[in-house]
């Protein structure tokens, strides 16, 4: 079902059926490279699939007055809220970077566990945990607990890690590579030990006089979560480590910061890396279908705020430089453009076509509201529905499901319905305001419509007033005597002018927006 609304929305929605619903196509070597997410066969007989789409947050916070994430507490609470909102929108995954000694996400398992307890469907993961810093057994306990809390939704990205904030930071955590070895060697050793432990086999000799009775045989680390071993990803910046990850049966996270091994554009090098990984995985004899992700910064410029934030990235290009004294690296470009331009650019990204999972990097310091808008724009205007299947953010008839505000921290509220639904309620393009409403009310309605279209949120909640607010789009109230779009909403049982609701929500009163 095509969404109503502007030509831009139509372009994004239809064209990305082709871009993100990948189709087997010849690579530059002349071979066919099918996507690997179910290998569904499309009407033409070509191999097609619908990619999983997640977000990847770097978890920055800053006391800057321009940041909406000014403390570690802000980042943690907002990350939980964004994951909840993303699940309600139909996003497939919530992933977080891990960096130590920095004002960024550093201890992932409490955050992942909290998200797992607040959500029910969305995958939760990392991209990536630096294994130079990790105790494999303690990490296995944390990972097992987080996976059990989430009901088996953990997708754990691990790796050697990137250059850190301090020199040899892992030494402060009590770890050091053996003589003649590197930090990368130590990271791979920790990873292999971690993979072995989470297989669940006993390895520790029990005490003959334990405090509590033991099961027979050697003991394993608890809690153990069955199936977690198949959901470990290796973040790879080189072809060699991608092959190594394949041999160990891990999934692949192709790093946006990659060793520049051929001088080709990043997306071409990543596509070749993915092909080498899949070939090595097959040669290793693994029977499970592996997963591969790439991450990209993708922003559809659909309103003035988008253009103000990311319009300068229209001419973004790959960047090449030295990541250390010996490693030349290539860093991926951002995609920011009007819909028709963006679609053409994404069609040409060979790595996006080759992967089964796309992680969208989000500017977390712009706040939950804006990042939910970024994700919703991709899902409702860009990403396709799977052929004949219901996406999590849609009802069986194709209409977006209602989102409810589960938690309302001071200063923001995240509730409402998608832009497509509001368009159908005459709030989108084509639902022009009636001149007879008068300039004042028309202006108020335009502000309401703009807020809904740009964020699909009821804004203006006074900080700290309401903690649990249930906002539901239900019925459009019509102006008497004509068919104007939105004149009032209901708070409780009483109609309230739109401007009032945009400025405040009374304590204890569930607010309802209404559509026809």
Description:
By secondary structure, the protein is α/β, with parallel strands linked by helices. The protein is 32% helix and 17% strand. The chain has 14 helices and 22 strands. The chain has helices spanning 7-19, 72-89, 108-118, 136-150, 183-197, 239-247, 266-283, 304-310, 339-347, 350-354, 368-382, 419-424, 439-455, 498-503, and strands at 21-23, 25-26, 32-33, 40-41, 47-50, 52-57, 93-96, 123-126, 129-130, 154-159, 232-236, 251-254, 257-259, 292-300, 319-322, 328-331, 334-337, 357-362, 472-473, 488-491, 494-497, 511-513. The strands form 5 sheets. Strands 6-7-8-10-11-12-14-18 form an 8-stranded parallel beta barrel, surrounded by 7 helices. β6, α2 (72-89) and β7 (93-96) form a beta-alpha-beta unit. α1 packs parallel to α9 (339-347), α2 runs parallel beside α3 (108-118) and α4 packs across α5 (183-197). The longest helix has 18 residues, at 72-89. The two termini are 19 Å apart. The relative contact order is 0.13. The model is unreliable at 1-18, 22-48 and 384-516 (pLDDT under 50).
User: β content, as a range?
Assistant: 15-25%
* Cα separation of the termini: 19 Å
Spatial strand arrangement across the major sheet: 6-7-8-10-11-12-14-18
Helix and strand composition category = alpha/beta
Uncertain spans: 1-18, 22-48, 384-516
Percent of residues in helical segments?
A: 25-40%
Radius of gyration: 25 Å
Number of strands: 22
On the 0 to 100 scale, the average pLDDT is 73
Can you tell me the overall shape?
A: globular
Tell me about the largest β-sheet: 8 strands, parallel, barrel
Number of DSSP helical runs = 14
